[in-house]
């Protein structure tokens, strides 16, 4: 047995019970066949003139906005 495995076992034995489940998930994920897909919110950026933020409500109210 390697020194690192011994250390890992010692650390796991010292974990409070409420911390065991998250660590177990982390280790189990290492054995998953396919990578986990995380669905993160889409965040977009854009460039615009300095007054764009001030005019944004007027632009939206005008109805001249088209979805991509």
Tell me the strand percentage band: under 5%
Can you tell me the overall shape?
rod-shaped
Assign a percent range to the helix content.
40-55%
Rg result: 25 Å
Structural class: mainly alpha
Number of helices: 3
Largest sheet descriptor: none
Mean pLDDT level: 80
Order of helices and strands: HHH
Which segments are poorly predicted (pLDDT under 50) over 5 or more consecutive residues? none
Distance between the termini: 57 Å
**E-strand count:** 0
Secondary structure topology:
Elements: H1 3-14, H2 17-29, H3 52-62
Overview of the molecule:
With 68 residues, the protein is mainly alpha-helical. 53% of the residues lie in helices and 0% in strands. The protein contains three helices and no strands. The chain is rod-shaped, with a radius of gyration of 25 Å. 0% of the residues are buried.
Question: Briefly, what is this?
Answer:
The chain has helices at residues 3-14, 17-29, 52-62. With 68 residues, it is an all-alpha fold.
Which short descriptors sum up this protein?
single chain, 68 residues, mainly alpha, 3 helices, 53% helix, rod-shaped
